[in-house]
Structure prediction request, 216 residues.
Amino acid sequence: MTGLRVPSAISSFLLGFTYIAAFVYFGAFFSFPETAPPEEKMRFLAEHKVQVSFVYFSIYVLFGVLLAVLVVGLHELLRRTHPPLAALASLFGAVWVTLVIASGMIFTVGLDHAIHLASEEPEAAYALWRTLSVIGDSVGGGNELVGGLWVLLVSLLALRGRLLSPGLNCLGCLVGAAGIGTIYPADILTELFGLTQILWFLWLGLVLSRTNAYSV
Prediction:
């Protein structure tokens, strides 16, 4: 994994920071008028179209690209520990990459279509945006089963091969379990997955950046 060590470490750090940026933006800066009529809601989205599109692109499409680098890098590190399980883990990782990028495209393209429709039919435009939001969230954020399975399998493989860090791998098992638990529709489970995965990504980036972290 020598050639992928640095890109994987950088990607892992950036993935963690992307999560942090998303929490900060939606928690502190995105003041969407939830109780306003459809016209006002669409006006808000139109006025903030550039920044909203950029945020969705960053936390989904860019996130997916960075995740792809990390999935391949970890596969190269872990593939000798148990080849069939490593292949399964990477398959779930690749599926997660696909879902996240697809979700980002649904949000960004859907927002543009909804805003264009708003000038003629604001209620229909907001209904369209709500529908696309449900689809996008369902594909890439509302249910973290696939991501949870990937993190869990990666952590189990690393524990088996005595790679990375025992503490990191135990945290990864917790993150993976939280992700799988999101099959039950409760916001607390999704938030737990996101918050613990921030720590996992940052810790993983730190471990990957150390050349003595590898035995393969």
Notes: The radius of gyration is 19 Å.
